[in-house]
Amino acid sequence: QRKYGAFVQDDWRLSDELAFNLGLSFSERTIEINEGNFRTHAKYKLFSPSAHLAKKIDGDDKQQVRFSIAQSFKAPDVSQLSLRPTIHPLALCTVNGLCGPNAAETADRAGNPNLQAERSLGANLSYEHGIGADSQISIEFFVREIDRLIGTDIKREDVSWATTQRFVARPTNFGRANVFGVDMEAQLSLRDIWQ
Question: Contact at 8 Å (CB) between 21 and 10?
């Protein structure tokens, strides 16, 4: 596996209360898997731009609103691309190494060399409120639009390790999905609480 990456970022202070940030990251990954009869080659080139706007409330460093928008990605790992199967323990093969049929609930597992990286475009709106010197409470609203969502697909296939078709569970790209949520976080220092 070979990975190359670069990241560039710049910040602008628009006023005493307003700050702006732009970033761009690039990643290239090449994965080659050689497992005897099973060979996999995958290559990904991914760009991820981001922008962040932060505003202090009444000039107070401990209170601010932040808006962010960014594109991110999640590349498949080696196990999701590997073609070597994992035979389900409840649908074992015969002594000579060949398998008979199995059921969907006893599906074998194998990777998918055509799996594409999962991409998402997300926006976050957060409010941070400082308490004392080292404590902070924050609430964040977020939305994500995911493209090429990675999930598991189970279907019958002709496979090299069986004399008949078997059910195989493979990671696959399903299409689009949307995620919405709220995240609340508190970082509390015992020194601040004691005071």
Answer: yes
Gap between the Cα atoms of 191 and 132, Å rounded: 9
pLDDT tens digits for 6-37? 999 999 998 888 999 999 999 999 999 888 87
Residue type, 64: Q
- Amino acid identity of residue 119, one-letter, is R
What pairing do the DSSP bridges indicate for beta strands 118-131 and 18-35?
Answer: unpaired
Q: Is the pLDDT of residue 130 over 80?
A: yes
Look up residue 70 and give its two tokens.
């960014």
Exposure pattern of 40-67 as b/e (b: 16+ CB <10 Å)? bebebebebebebebebeeeeeeebebe
Q: Per DSSP, what are the bridge partners of residue 88?
A: none
Q: Is 142 exposed, middle or buried (0-12, 13-18, 19+ CB in 10 A)?
A: middle
